[in-house]
Amino acid sequence: MPDTHALVSDFLNKLKKRKIEGSKATAKLTAELLRSVISQQRLPNTNQAGALIHAIKAIGDQLTAANPVEVAVGNIVRRVLHIIREEDVSLTTASIGGLSLQGLSDDDDDDDNPLVSAAAAAAAARTTLRPPSLQTLLEDIPPHSAAASAAAAALHHSSSSAGDSEDKTKSTDKNSRSRKLKHNVIEAVNELIQDIATCHELIAEQAVEHIHHNEVILTLGSSGTVIEFLCAAKEKKRSFRVFVAEGAPRYQGHTLAKELVARGLQTTVITDSAVFAMISRVNMVIVGAHAVMANGGVIAPVGLNMVALAAQRHAVPFVVLAGIHKLCPLYPHNPEVLLNELKSPSELLDFGEMSDCMDFGTGTGSPLLHVVNPAFDYVPPKLVSLFITDTGGHNPSYMYRLIADYYSADDLVLQQRPTS
Amino acid sequence: MDPRRPSRVIDPKVRKVGFFTPGPPPERTQSGPAATTPAQSPISNSLSPVMIPPPRHASDNLSRAVGVPVPTLAHPPVDSLQVGSYTLSDSVFTASPTRSPSSRIGIDGEFSEDSANWMKKDGSGRLPAVVTTGGTDLKQAIEALNDDNSGDVGEGASQKNSKPLKAKTTKAERRALQEAQRAAKASAKAPAQTSKPVKQANQKKDVPQLASSSVVHEKKGGDKPPEKDRKKDMPPPRMQFDDKNRVEKAKKRSVVKQTEARNRVELFRHLPQYERGNQLSDLGSSFFQIDDVHPTVYKVGLQFLAGDIMWSNTRCIAMLQAFQKVIEDYSTPPEKTLARDLTAKINTSVSFLNECRPLSISMGNAIRFLKARIAKITLAQTEPEAKTSLCTEIDDYIKAKIVLADKQIVIHAVTKICDGDVILTYGSSSLIKMILLHAHELRRQFRVVIVDSRPNLEGRQLLRKLVEKGLSCTYTHINGVSYIMPEVTKIFLGAASVLSNGTVYSTIGTACVAMVGHAYHVPVLVCCESYKFHERVQLDSICSNELGDPNVIAKVPGRKKNCLDDWASKENLQLLNLAYDVTPADYVSTIVTEYGLIPPTSVPVIVREYGREHILI
């Protein structure tokens, strides 16, 4: 536990100081951190999943508080929680299945056992989001939010009742199960890390379906996914040209342009102000995103709302590339302000540049000059034509549905409620 | 020079190209037999006298001798109008046969002492400074220059004589012409600008022609009716720089030897795109060698080139004042009419300025006004009278159309600023600055948001001025405009021009700001003097625009190392620095002019009802 403590606080520091940049890197690091936390977590004999979930939630709480704008952290924490729940449920169903068979054969079991097992199975069916069948709909099920706890309770109950009947297998069974849970969870987290690492490739594979010959593509700022996407199309012998808006005040467009030119793409760098002038000759806008919200809105590098509006005016498709780890299960409220971050004004004006003309002696005390340097823009879903994720292309209106595949409803709110 | 003759066959129609009334019909019958290459006239008609610089280099003539017989194209009226002046030119020529070649040498590249000194002084690179450091030398130099100038004008005239002759070719003349052509061809083969042989040829040819040509010219000069009002106000189409032939021709004629930029953007081949900065020192050094551009115009041109005069109003005023100087220093050569000769002179200056930096629409309007005024000068007026009247007219124009109009606009616009407003503006417009400062003087309580963007980062200048005056300002870049927009209550924008379909032609980025404002339902007020209105229509920002220096894009302010520093060596990479964009009319709530606040749909009305008045009256 002390080891993980150091790791966590180190990561927290980095997040707070904004040392880690880019949602992909953050997501990867978060997943790796959580993996080591899980592997070092000592689990109690009973209710292991609950304990694990509790521990992860506590860390997730701190992590999201360290950089609330970086939603990828929260996303990954939720993904890991979801993984734990799923593994737990699948273990439970397996054991209950075994148990009920056992019970039937033994013939001396408690009366309520099959009932509980049926309820747990139903709950498991719900939480794993299998397509609902008529049977599951007709059955009497505990409320959805309680499903997992019901499953855990069932596990507890059945294990204890099983313990009554069979003394010998008790300890070995428990040990193996706890190890199995941990093992399975770590396996799944590894898969998640793998997914994050390869999402670029999966997205880039779809490039040929979207980019055709002689097209003109516009992009703003820099995004690794966009580079891969464009280069993948280039490798498939598509010839097209790219306009890169430089993306003030960080001018990452320059690095993007350099990279594209190195890969042999026809690239033209334009100023951000020329976006409206040039968009009439553009066939498609392809950009990366910082986060994708549940309503299909996008938290994107600053300036993209302007580009999206210009694209809408000229009926140019506005395509957002986003790995599934950027998908945030929250619905945004006033995201322009609440999910934004103001960067240093020195990126726009040097400190002291205006000091010679400002009168500090008199005046009301409130400074005359404010410099606003936001980091992100919110692009509402109506301006987005298409999301391309590693699972394929999606409409903005469909994003809420994808969320159900990757997150469980219990975890949507990470903050632990104060216990009364 | 002679070789130009074949192409010189100019029928009166061609003269329409400029801002002149057509020659009288009888003339045409006189020049009848020549039947003047009709196929060429449409081309020349389609060309703008403003866009095409006039020929003035010996090299030009030479190359033309080598090249295909060119269509008459754009001799701006300079040429066509200097009819009847040959006597003067001849006299000048014969009077100073020794001086002229020697002065030529300096021009032709062997440094005269003057130019060598100049080069040393020019180290600083900044032009205005250089011009002032010239000090007393400069004065003398300018005097010398003026002397030189008159000589050159005369010379130019002499070479031009031949053109009307062509219309009436006798056998003897044709022979002379052929001889001259041959001589010119021979000289053309020699490299560099060997102007002397050509001159000899010129002289040779001039002698036999004297008698016949004088007759023609007197007639031409004589029955010239007083200038009428121009019926056709339609501005000629702009020069398209993707037309290689024309570009070649224009280049030969240009004073400013521009080298073409590398890695040009395919989409903008129709616009001139040159390397910046490198011509400046050359031009500075040739300050004393210019022949037919007035030194004041030259100075203003170099300031345009160096970017010292940037704003459309200041550019326009600088240009008009330079023309005032031109008019003051002007004296009509004998046997020429002031109206025609002066227009020719203005045309030369205009094309020079246009080479330095493409003229803005407002400047085009001012030039049209000036030419219309010059055209109205009757023969009855004496020269000093005409000159003073022109100068006062220019003064009045500046006063009425720019200074007073600005004041009136400020009065109108201030009524729209209320207490508690948050005014957003983009870039730096002198008019907007005046409005904001005036509202501040009226003790309105408001806040200003200044949105800025590369390439010029002009907003900083405005920010500085406003902060100095104690206005509360917020500064952001254009990408942050969506963030700031919810708190904005009004958007004030300046404009370079308003076109008659209501679109606003303005600094690049204006359209973005107006669009975001429109999306957030913030009213967009465009402030623009009505002299900048233009009857042209435009739908996108690509057909007509101006390209700036691409190197500006590569350099990020405040960074020592830029990742695009070596962009020119990569053929796949282009940098695009657009100067203007076009804001669609539906983003604009109202346009504030000196006539009041009008919707964008009313722009053509203003153009129609008020635009004519200053041109026609």
Overview of the molecule:
The complex is a heterodimer of chains A (420) and B (617). By secondary structure, chain A is α/β, with parallel strands linked by helices. Chain A folds into 2 domains: 2-199, no CATH class; 206-340 and 375-409, 3-Layer(aba) Sandwich (Rossmann fold), CATH 3.40.50.10470. Helix content of chain A is 52%, strand content 11%. Chain A has helices at residues 2-16, 23-40, 48-66, 71-106, 113-127, 134-138, 147-165, 168-205, 207-210, 224-235, 252-262, 275-278, 304-313, 335-338, 399-406; strands at residues 216-220, 241-245, 266-270, 284-288, 291-292, 298-301, 318-321, 369-372, 376-379, 386-389, 392-394. In chain A, the strands form 2 sheets. In chain A, strands 3-2-1-4-7-10-11 form a 7-stranded mixed beta sheet. Among the domains of chain B are: 244-402, Up-down Bundle (Four Helix Bundle (Hemerythrin (Met), subunit A)), CATH 1.20.120; 418-541 and 578-614, 3-Layer(aba) Sandwich (Rossmann fold), CATH 3.40.50. Chain B contains 27 helices and 12 strands. Chain B has helices at 4-8, 12-15, 25-30, 40-46, 58-66, 77-81, 86-95, 99-107, 113-121, 127-133, 135-167, 171-189, 195-222, 244-253, 278-285, 295-306, 312-328, 338-356, 361-375, 383-414, 430-441, 459-468, 481-484, 510-519, 551-554, 603-609, 611-616; strands spanning 421-426, 446-452, 472-477, 490-494, 497-499, 504-507, 524-527, 533-534, 573-576, 580-583, 590-593, 596-598. In chain B, the strands form 2 sheets. Chain B has a 7-stranded mixed beta sheet, with helices on both faces. Chain B has a 4-stranded mixed beta sheet with strand order 8-5-6-10, sandwiched between helices. Chain B is globular. Mean pLDDT of chain B is 69; it is low at 1-168 and 190-233. Chains A and B meet through helix 11, strand 3, helix 12, helix 13 and strand 8 of A and helix 22, strand 3, helix 23, helix 24 and strand 9 of B. Strand 8 of chain A pairs parallel with strand 3 (472-477) of chain B, so a sheet runs across the interface.
